[in-house]
Structure formats: structure tokens, C-alpha cells
Task: inverse folding
């Protein structure tokens, strides 16, 4: 009777802390814990690591998916049959799947198919996404660290621009991940708590109006000489079309987006004739473990532990969630939600978390506890002492 | 009899530490120290801050130019005459100018013009550039911190790609600052000391051969499934033409470059049909004080102090330099070089610091001491406690 853990979807700087939580909690409870390499993609090839004796300490400070992730969806019958043959072969009875919206859909399908087949299997989802767009949870592990990274990056870039604008660059644009929701882009405004941040935040939740936007940039530049802009990659026109659509879809069927920062910069250059710099942190924002949030690292680990505890309490077919008890002092309570209620769902930034191109007090009260603390990784050779498993 | 300090050119995460060094050393030696806002641009408008009583502690941990920088060159007679009228009016007799190649040219012109005019003025240049391309100094303040940032960013992105390549993105490209020289791009290879870094580094020092490059990417991807690439913005074809030329020049007459990351990615996509992510850290790499190098912060401050000491010893018309005494234990000696020997000069990466697309042991021995130590800034609200002067 074995437990299996695997990682799925875009990684974060703290997903390995969840892996640590699952593995350590499983061991403490006497479960034989295995790990699937590259999520269901590797499991279908019987690629496993026995984690019962693995040295896992470094998982708490190493970003990205130490066991490999995947983008695969379990949509066809042949894959599902093969998965259950493999589960049966290795007597896998617990399945902890660590991912976001798409991955929770996979977890849900596997749970449903197990019941259909009369195969005893307890599936628990461990939430993970820098996008923070899973419903029924106050927030998601991975978001706090990415938000902290973005807030700091925007502060530092804004200080840079503030130095340079008098006879050089006057506009800085940072393109931020967030295909559907603006949670992460909104974090670019948090720096104002310490005096400097994004002047304009373009969110997918606010349909893009070019004329209104250009007028806003012009106003800011006229007033203070320079303007910092955060733009979510999922920015949309009122008709729902992405401002920057790359023209193709990934294997989950999501439209590939890219280059919205340059699209926006081009508009400003042609309309206002200003010199512009564009930054695209890309992977850096989601794997920037060197400046993770302590709250996030701790909660990521606890979400992993809770998944094991729920499964052992026969609370399965669920995803671990966090409920906000209070903002200050910050307090959360762990809970769970049926997987089908999160599968393929998206939680947008609430209307009262932003006002035009700015974030509100309410968003700040929400986000502030999530970026607290600096659990720096250990350093060796002047660089983080990240470690790896041999995953082929 | 006053001393004047000012900042010029693209900023760094430690230029303010040099400002701290100049101001503190000047005070200790009884000089009345003023600061020019926005370099010569502001000085020509008589924009000064009296720094004799200013609270300057935060300069040691706040990135970018706290006093504002500029891109102005002192090329015309009217500007030079006006500058000397202003120097005379305020009895400015020491001028500490903090910048890179172009700024040292300005410092040199000012020193020469002072001598021509019989105006007693002692000019000392304080080096600063993330590009690390000033000659006659072992390295430049600003480089160590930017190199540390790039090395860590590439490690984190490489771990991300390593998680994802099996059924998603297989190539990651990071576009790195460095108009003429590949010092900073080379730092993307330092992560290998801790197990993971850039597979291919494209340097301006090695003329770009598209076919050879595509074959190299193909080899790496075939061997291990994914490939990480660092590309310097100043990458050139054998005929000297930039691989990505934006089509215009800045006010220093430098060609504006941008988008080489996407140019390279486009080549790989069309030749090899692989899915690619591109990151452009832009300002983030040169103002990322949250992960500066301790060596760099200390040396930046000392370069500021040495500038004042040299001026007081009547060693002027020079720039402060650092000479490497030994790599291990790391030891440097401060010295100086006549400004005309650094003005508008560029030091390229030596031929034995790279081999094809990789860095050599020799580069590692050179760069390693420069990225040591983590002098983290203080935090407030979960964010760095950066501060600002009111510079208008």
C-alpha cells in the first residue's frame, strides 16, 4: 500500500516546500511514499523515485519542480486505463497531486475514475500557482513569493527610472505573468507602502482602452517626469481578445501569450514619443526562491502536510485550502474543497481590489501578510546552494 | 571652497554606496560637500543639495541613483563655459564624478578645461558600471552585484526549465545588458559551480554564426532535453553589425539595442521548432540591490573614499582603480589612472576567459570573489526599506 506524490503545471519557488511537507508527513505516518517524475507524464512511463529514505532537506530552499513537472491532461481513456494499471501494479492507494487549475482537473478525473472502477484510491490536491487564481482558497502557495518578487522588482526598476528620466528613459514597462487574472500584476503596486511602485497597473479584469491608457501615461509623465507600468500578460480588449496573442495554443489548450510589454511600449512610443524600457522577468518571477516570502514557504509546506492528514482522515477527492481568519494579526485556517469545485475554475481579482489603474487598501490588506519574511536559502560560492535529484 | 559630487550614466545597485563613501570621507576631512542633482544636467541648472548635514545612512542599501543621474555629454563650449561660471559662483574646487566610460570622458574634459582656464579644480572619477568594461581597473563597482543577480537568475530559470521540458518549453533565453562587452553575460555561467547554469553564452566578443549556434542548441537539446541560453544585448555579426539593432541612437551617440533575446528565440523556433521562453531582466539586473554582492558594496564605498583621499593628496585628473593582488585569498589594492586613459575606452572580455559558448576556469577565478556575500537591505512591510531624497 503506497502513497504517490507528483508535481504538475507551471512551477513556483515554493512547490518543493509542499513536496517536503507531503513526504515528511507521509513518513511520520508510516506511509511508503513514492514520487512520480514529471507528473502524470512520467507516471505513465513508470518513472518513480522511492522517497521513503531520500534526503529531502534541500527541498525547503530549492525552487522549481525538483521531481519534474508536466503539462499533460488526462483526457483520453487509454491514458486513464494505463494509469490505473500502473497504480494497481504498484499498489498505489494515495495520490497527492500538486498543481493549479488544470492539475486539479486531472486529480478530479483520477478520483472519479477510481470510484467508477472500484479501485480504492484517495486523491488529495495540493494547491500551487503563482497566478493565485484557484477558487475556494484565500490564496495559493507560490503566490506570496512571486508577489514579493514582483513588488521588489518594480520598486528597484522605479528607483532606476527615477534616476534616469531627466534626459533619458521616461517610461518603464514590466510584463507580468497572469494569463487570466491580475493577482500578480497587482503586486507591482505594493512598493508604494515603502514609497515607490507601479504608477499604472494593467489588469485582465479591466478591459483595455488604449486612448484612456495613453492619456493616463501622459498625465503621470507630465506630473512627475516618468511613469512605471505593470502589465499582466493576460490583458484583454473589451471583446475578450488578448492584447498580445502569440497565435497558438499549448497542450492544455491555453492560448500562448507573449510580448504584451512590447505591444504596450510600442503604443506609448508612437503616441507620446517617449523613450521606454521593457522588462520581462518570465521564469525569474516564479522561481525566484532567493527572495521568497516566509509566509509562503511555511504555508506551502503545511498544505503538503494537510493533504496527507486529510487523506488519512478519509477526507479525499478534495484540494487543501486556506481560509483567512484575520488580516492583522494574520491568521489562516486549513480546510478542504471538493476537487470538482476547483478543477478548471478561475478566481479573478475582486472588483474592490482595484480602482482604475491602481490597487486599493483592500488589496493591500489582503496581500501584505502573504509577502512577509525573508527565508533566505543557504549560499555556497556566492550563489544559492540549490540542489537537484537525478530525474534523468 | 566646496567639493561637489554627482552621478552619471546608467545606474547600479551600489552607486549610492560610492556616494556614501565620497560624502562621509569628505565630511571626515572637513570639506563642505555638495551634491549635483542629475549629474552635469542638473549642475548646469544650479540644482544642488548640501550634503554636509544630510542623513546618508540609507545610501548603503538603496539601489539606483539617489541624486539622479544623466546621459549628458559636455561637448559644446557654451555648456562648458556655463559650468565654470557656476563652479566659480559657488567656489567649487573639488569635483567627484561617478560613472562609466562616457562619464569619465566628461570628467576628463572638465579637468582639461579647468587647466586651460587657470581655474583651480581637482577632478577625480569614481568608477561605476555593471558592464565592467572600464580599462586600467581590475573590475568596476556595480559589476559584482549585477553578475551575482544574473548568475542567480540563470540558475533559477534553469531549474524551472529542467522541471518543464519533458512536455513543454525546451529552450530558455535570457537577454543580458552589455552593449560592447560580455562581462555580465559571462556571469550566467557561474551557476555551474553549484550544479546548474547557462548551457550557451553568446558574447559580443565572439562574432555570431547562426548555423554554428543552431547546431549547438540542437546538440544540447538532443543530449539533455533542454537548453539555457544567455545572450548579451551587444551580440554582433562578423561584419560588426548588431544582431538586434533598434535603428536609433541615444544622446551619447550609442546605438539603441533591444530585443536580441526574441531575435535569437525566433531563429531557434524556425530552425528547430522548439517551444521557447524569453526573459529580459532589463533594469532589474542593474538595480537588484536585494541580492547585491558584499564585496561590491564594500568596494563601491571604498572607491568613493579613495576619490576624496586622492584629491586631498593632489592626485587629480584621475579615476580610482582597483588592482588585483591575488584571487585566493582575494585581495585588491586601490590605485588611480589618468582620466584620459579611460575616457571612452572599452575593455573586452579577454580571449582566455571564454571558449566557444562557455566560460573558462580563468574567468571563474576572476569573477568568483566579486559575487561573495549577501549584504541584505533592511525590510519593512515585507519589502526592502529603500529611501529617497526629494530630488524634484
Result:
Amino acid at each position: 500500500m503506497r502513497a504517490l506524490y507528483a508535481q504538475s503545471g507551471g512551477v513556483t519557488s515554493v512547490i518543493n516546500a509542499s513536496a517536503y511537507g507531503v513526504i515528511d508527513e507521509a513518513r511520520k505516518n508510516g506511509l511508503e511514499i513514492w514520487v512520480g517524475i514529471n507528473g502524470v507524464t512520467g507516471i505513465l512511463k513508470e518513472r518513480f523515485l522511492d522517497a521513503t529514505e531520500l534526503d529531502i532537506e534541500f527541498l525547503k530552499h530549492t525552487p522549481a519542480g525538483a521531481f519534474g513537472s508536466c503539462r499533460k491532461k488526462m483526457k483520453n481513456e487509454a491514458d486513464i486505463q494505463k494509469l490505473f494499471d500502473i497504480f494497481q501494479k504498484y499498489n498505489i492507494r494515495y495520490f497527492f497531486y500538486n498543481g493549479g487549475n488544470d492539475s486539479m482537473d486531472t486529480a478530479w478525473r483520477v478520483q472519479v475514475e477510481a470510484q467508477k472502477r472500484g479501485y480504492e484510491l484517495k486523491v488529495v490536491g495540493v494547491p500551487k500557482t503563482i497566478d493565485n487564481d484557484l477558487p475556494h482558497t484565500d490564496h495559493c502557495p507560490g503566490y506570496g513569493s512571486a508577489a514579493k518578487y514582483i513588488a521588489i522588482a518594480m520598486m528597484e526598476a522605479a528607483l532606476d527610472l527615477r534616476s534616469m528620466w531627466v534626459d533619458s528613459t521616461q517610461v518603464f514597462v514590466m510584463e507580468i505573468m497572469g494569463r487570466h487574472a491580475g493577482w500578480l500584476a497587482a503586486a507591482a503596486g505594493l512598493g508604494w507602502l515603502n514609497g515607490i511602485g507601479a504608477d499604472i497597473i494593467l489588469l485582465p479584469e479591466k478591459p483595455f482602452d488604449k486612448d484612456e491608457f495613453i492619456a493616463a501615461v501622459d498625465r503621470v509623465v507630465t506630473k512627475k517626469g516618468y511613469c512605471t507600468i505593470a502589465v499582466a500578460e493576460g490583458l484583454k480588449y473589451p471583446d475578450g481578445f488578448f492584447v498580445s496573442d502569440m497565435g497558438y495554443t499549448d497542450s492544455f489548450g491555453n492560448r500562448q501569450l507573449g510580448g504584451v510589454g512590447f505591444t504596450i511600449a510600442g503604443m506609448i512610443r508612437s503616441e507620446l514619443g517617449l523613450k521606454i524600457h521593457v522588462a520581462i522577468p518570465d521564469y525569474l518571477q516564479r522561481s525566484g526562491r532567493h527572495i521568497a516570502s516566509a509566509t509562503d514557504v511555511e504555508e506551502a509546506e503545511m498544505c503538503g502536510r494537510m493533504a496527507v492528514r486529510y487523506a488519512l482522515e478519509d477526507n479525499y477527492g478534495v484540494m487543501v485550502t486556506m481560509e483567512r481568519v484575520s488580516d492583522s494579526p494574520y491568521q489562516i485556517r486549513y480546510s478542504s474543497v471538493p476537487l470538482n469545485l476547483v478543477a478548471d475554475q478561475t478566481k479573478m481579482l475582486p472588483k474592490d481590489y482595484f480602482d482604475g489603474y491602481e490597487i486599493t487598501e483592500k488589496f493591500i490588506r489582503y496581500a501584505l501578510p502573504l509577502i512577509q519574511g525573508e527565508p533566505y536559502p543557504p549560499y555556497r560560492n556566492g550563489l544559492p546552494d540549490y540542489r537537484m535529484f537525478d530525474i534523468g
Remarks:
- Residues 288 and 306 of chain B are 25 Å apart (CA to CA).
- Residues 2-142+290-345 of chain B form a domain with the Rossmann fold fold (CATH 3.40.50.450).
- Chain B touches chain A through 77 residues (CB under 8 Å).
